[in-house]
Structures are given as C-alpha cells and as structure tokens.
Amino acid sequence: MTGETKRVTLNWVQDLRFVGGEPGGPLITIDGDNAEGPGPMATLLLAAAACTGSDVVDILKKMRVPFRELTLEVAGIRREEHPRRYVSIHLDYRIVGTEEEAKIRRAIDLSLEKYCSVVHSLAPDIVVAYGLSLA
Q: What are the pLDDT digits (tens) for 57-66?
C-alpha cells in the first residue's frame, strides 16, 4: 500500500527554539520553552484541533449548516513519568450562529471517528473525548 509522503524541515535557532515547515511553505516556530511559540506538546494539541476543526467546517458546509464562529479549546492530560505523553485529550467545540446540535454532533463524530488524520495518528490508547456548546 502506498500513500502520500509528507516532508518537513526543522531548523534549530537557539535555546529550545526551532523553525520549520514544508519545503517552500510557510514556517512556524516551535519553542520547547513556550516563550516565542508553542512547545511541541501544545503544537500536537493545536494540530489535532486544526485537523478536526477543518473536518467539521467542511462537513457542516456539505450539510448546509450555516454558522458564524467555531472555537476549539483542547486540554491534554499527560503522564507524570517519562515519556510524558498524552493519556487523554478533551476537545471543547464552541459554535456560534446555529442551533442544529444533532448535525453538529454528527459532523464532530465523523471527524473524530473517521476523518481526522492527526487524531488517528495518535496512540490508540489515548482517550479522545469532546464537549459542545452552542450560542
């Protein structure tokens, strides 16, 4: 089975700060000290949020569910011992401008269960849960 190969380059800048991205694409700063950019573990949460957020936006458009805002807040619980990986991740979706809760929950479930590549790239024993609030 062959698939798409993604490539990135990451360059050390100073201290625990790195800059990288896809060749020819925009660059991001990842800072192990969380001073000039999010650290690696926060970046992982951001990647999961952006992945599922993109899925939800796309699915809701296909469902013809209009909305004005989508905000995701993500919390990850890490192990105390090394490796200090995530053992659970909780995503809170806040959507403004619609009351179609059943369709929104369906979009979120499709994202987390089928489409979100980042979530599906995590260790299978990481518990992923979500909450939803509409305004």
A: 999 999 999 9
Residues 24 and 47: their CA atoms lie apart, in Å, by 20
Candidates 50, 63, 126; CA nearest to 93 is: 50
95: nearest Cα among 115, 72, 112, 74: 72
pTM summary value: 0.94
For the CA atoms of 90, 121, 56, 93, what is the dihedral angle to 10 degrees?
A: 10
CATH of 40-134, one of 3.30.160.20, 3.30.300.20, 1.10.10.60, 3.40.190.10: 3.30.300.20
Domain parsing of the chain, residue ranges = 1-37, 40-134
